[in-house]
Amino acid sequence: MNNVTRLLQRHRSIRKFKPDEVSEQVLEAIVRSAQMASTSSNVQAYSVIAVTNPETKRALSAVAGNQQHVESCPVLLVWCADLSRDKLACEREGVEMVSGTMENFIVATVDVALAAQNAAIAAESLGLGIVYIGGIRNNLREATRLLNLPKLVYPVFGMCLGYPDHESGVRPRLPLRAVLHRETYDETAQAESIDEYDRRTRDYYIERTGGKRDTTWSKEMADKFKRPARAYMRAYLEEQGFRFD
Amino acid sequence: MNNVTRLLQRHRSIRKFKPDEVSEQVLEAIVRSAQMASTSSNVQAYSVIAVTNPETKRALSAVAGNQQHVESCPVLLVWCADLSRDKLACEREGVEMVSGTMENFIVATVDVALAAQNAAIAAESLGLGIVYIGGIRNNLREATRLLNLPKLVYPVFGMCLGYPDHESGVRPRLPLRAVLHRETYDETAQAESIDEYDRRTRDYYIERTGGKRDTTWSKEMADKFKRPARAYMRAYLEEQGFRFD
Description:
2 copies of one chain form a homodimer. By secondary structure, the first copy, chain A, is an alpha+beta fold. The first copy, chain A, has 11 helices and 5 strands. Chain A folds into 2 domains: 3-169, NADH Oxidase, CATH 3.40.109; 176-222, no CATH class. The first copy, chain A, has a 4-stranded antiparallel β-sheet, with helices on both faces. In chain A, helix 2 packs across helix 6 (102-125) and helix 3 runs antiparallel to helix 7 (140-147). The N and C termini of chain A lie far apart (44 Å).
């Protein structure tokens, strides 16, 4: 372990922030760090919108199911997969961009995630805290309108940014052997790993809530996956010009 | 700037590795760091296969268009989006998993990217070097066979891991104002940013290759996007059980 792996392994989401502003210098250090993440063939297929306007944050908080921290954080970063800039580059070379494949969609979605995770690490190293806001995907049509996004751009997640005003525990993860396989995929490791993790998450919730929350990872997953998630997504993405041929 | 933002901003891909092994302890520190990345509603929808077997690496190198470093790196990590474990969790609760939406696909693809980027940072902080291998997506059917992947799992990218045996320059990125927008998306900043970046990338390539490579970012993008990319992807993903409703 060194300072960096300790920082990475100490990550916890922060949902309450001090009123302190995030300075321009700090924001730029974070986004410049994001930019240096790997990118597929240098396409850099992402953009990030820094939102500080209270009305926009309030509206995006409503999109995300009224998550109070989306409104109260000093800066909300909205991370977008973005093929529109690559399209502009093609146009100036007189080339019609062919971006209508699942592959292009994957590339843009991965590119923005790599950049955002670098931003998260940079922010935490500078004493800030973050929480990813997947809830922005509740209504991407509204987010697209609020942020004035052009075609070939879609918000993948938000990220609240600011100085932490609370501490929270580090949530235990699946046993290492569940996610790390050797040479080939090991299905036999899964059942035992889930048993072990169900026990650990149950203990964690009981301890953390004084016994009020008594559940397991399996129960949480069953509850999450028992109905279709955000079923409008495909249609929205097609409206934004993405194709999945 | 601090040690971490310096590390993040110093990233360069490494394609030549010393023969030194990556110890079990180092590999575990890297994957444990990966596990602490944020994950959507704790689904942890990813797996990573650590490949050291020379034959498998050779075969995956062939998949990736004969990238020599895929064969010669001490460890190849294959990062997979993985909804199969969540399906197992649902099954033990007697729930039939409903995972047939674009949303679920995005969640799994983002989850693995966040974890992998933490792994990249951890590795670099420990003195190792990495390069992402998108080329593994040239033939995911073959990669799936070689790694014995179950349904609801797909390799998103590989990552060569080892101790660097060369130095390489840090490739310039787009101007900050191209990717960082304020309050709403700023289309007007794009044309000028691309002009500036085309000049910078041209200078960079000319200097780096002694004048042999004379191109711009726009030309590279036009060349990349003029034909459909990996058009079999959607069909492959459906074979693996993913749906995009």
